[in-house]
Sequence to fold (738 residues):
Amino acid sequence: MKIVIKNGRLIDPKHQIDARQDLFLAEGRVAGTGQAPVGFTPDQVIDASGLVVCPGLIDLSARLGRLENELEAAVAGGITTLVCPPDMGPPLDEPELAERLVRQAADLGLARVLPLGALTQKLEGEKLAEMATLKKAGCIAFSQGKRPILDTQALLRAFEYAATFGFAIWLQPQDYYLSRDGFAHDGEVAARLGLTGIPVSAETVAIATYLTLAADTGVRLHLRRLSSAAGMAMVARAQADGVAVTCDVDIHHLHLCEHDIGFFDTNARFDPPLRSQRDREGLCAGVAAGTAVLCSDHTPLDQDHKLMPFGEARPGATGLELLLPLTLKWAQAGKLSLTAALAPITSGPAAILGRDDLGHLAPGARADVCLFAPEEPWQVTAASLKSAGKNTPFLGYELAGRTKATLVGGRPVFNAL
Amino acid sequence: MLNPQLNENGELIHLLSTEGLPRSILTHILDTAATFVGITDREVKKVPLLRGKSVFNLFFENSTRTRTTFEIAAKRLSADVLNLDITRSSTAKGETLLDTIDNLCAMHADMFVVRHASSGAPYLIAEHLKKRGRKDIHVVNAGDGRHAHPTQGLLDMYTIRHFKQNFENLTVAIVGDILHSRVARSDIHALTTLGVPEVRAIGPQTLLPADLARMGVQVYHDMNDGLKGCDVVIMLRLQNERMNGALLPSAGEYFKHYGLTPEKLALAKPDAIVMHPGPMNRGVEIDSDVADGPQAVILNQVTFGIAVRMAVMSILAGNSQ
Fold:
């Protein structure tokens, strides 16, 4: 199957390309840009006039409910690869579970699903999971999801073991004891509304521990979903010192802060919590500087889980279809170029995954492509979202940037042209 | 963001918090309460303002004292009162909070008096009623988590005004466990709205919320400093479960530093009044000599509480959404 995508504005952040160029795809790979490769006869021509043509988006954190439905939502949001935590259902500590997830996703032929394996058995934080076996089964790195490792000795062993095999460890930096009772940023709004707070130190204490152990063991560490400016500064410093650490930020945290809780709006309940305005600014700067990449932290929830008092409601928001427009909105506010805007959702996450074949459009790359209308407005409503989760603080908002077509491995999987 | 407590004309339709209410509404409630204080002294203590109305006391968390004061207030307004102790009924069977509310709406409630362990629960109920188009049902927050206890805040304001006449020259100290106290939050918002120039919060760092100063109060850790020159001292109850553990080493050490003794009270103005939302822990946050002394107005607070709750209910019943 050979496809040419014509007349589009091709943006490839990895190679700093932003130009009117045609894109040629053959046998699931990029065959060339600009001039047609010798002897290229397309089976299909896609006219991308007025559209941006960029690498398919890579989302480093998405929780999926019903797989088919949520993967359809993913490709409708331009996402072609997504990473799932190991605690979506039964802990992903057995190779059969990981294999099944990867197979089910592959059979659907929509977005690629890259599972994180459990770092410890049953995610209990005590005994090591069979990482090498899980790796063979398709797990790309190891994580605890939202579950803690309380025993620092066990943590050190997990880092050492993963480092032995060159596996990466992905953890959410949140000290269990400093965060276990809380559900809002320990600041002005929590004080006023009487919400139990989670201090910034819950994040920075955990980061300090993880960075120390990462430096000692040499493990590749990825910190999931930073929430504070102080945390971002620590990661930037560690990166400058040569520690092999990367991190991501939930896109919602670039737009919202503690004040968005308003009168106990449960759609503004997140894990980690929305923090202060200053933290929000620190996160924005960190992503713009390349210290962190973005993720949707997609968490589709039934309305029943949100129609509750704030402290009893579940955290999280639907995000797959909002990742692109919210990234564009952030870039516009920060006066960033489209190339800079797309880097933290394409080339940036591909580098964290260590995948040379994803997140760019040079010849040889996987033909994962997103075509979007950068300025087309659309309203976020329950009906306009394909995801089963309608839970978002942006419900009712008009956002700019709409995915028009998505290709995975050279196959069109979403088409709204 | 629309304030869910007010209708389009700026009239009070729910009492959820003292925060966000204009001074005129707070003053109106206090003025209305003053007209009821006389009634409670009369032989026949009833007025027919809520005749034919049904007030449902929804206590998702036990509190005999608060429930009783609301019940008395509603009955003196001639309302029918239903007490539902929900901790032991439907929600224990897995029914959600809003299912419960829908069922009670179908029983023709006119007013819900809600006590709930979670901060914000009465907001959820008020919002749900709005969504259901039940403009005729009012919500009174009788205490939600750590967030607010607005009728307690208002009766405290009534008490202060009764003894001090006006708010403009006062220094008010709130002492103790402010972190877990919905009373403290309601007092702070009401005091600052009513124009009290200096509100002080006194307590150890473990019992004060982060960024408390952003609420417009001066924070003191040393009670001797904090009490100097005060006109009003509001003591807070220290819950048993907070006394011996991670927040405080012991009730004894707490009393030594933050208990109100005659010696400490002497640092305040000679005519300072001492308040407490009750029930008191004598010898923990307050010395018996102070609790029973001439400066204590703790029982006045209880009496005024009935009149203030009557005022709130009668004002709400007169306003529609």
